[in-house]
Amino acid sequence: MPIITKSAAKRMRTSRKARMRNRAEVSRILTAKHKLLKAVVDGSIEAARQAVKEYSSLLDKAAKKGVIAANNASRKKSRAAKKLASMTQKQGSAKA
Hints:
Layout: H1 6-42, H2 45-65, H3 70-95
Helix pairs in contact: 1-2, 2-3
């Protein structure tokens, strides 16, 4: 069994706390993403708009905290907006 110094033990404790916080944040992001995908599949534009707004907000907050990289957040927001845009375009062409 290796000898663990006090500083290493403290670092392990703080790393564990940070990992749990980050996992909770990522879980919230994935839940919002699933809500968005469900709204897109259901065809509810208003629900999808709200879901994109919530998803984008969570991504921005996670990027600000360093949970995910800024470019990662930007890419995911762009893809979500693209899904919403294609959904509204399909809806608009169906009405015409």
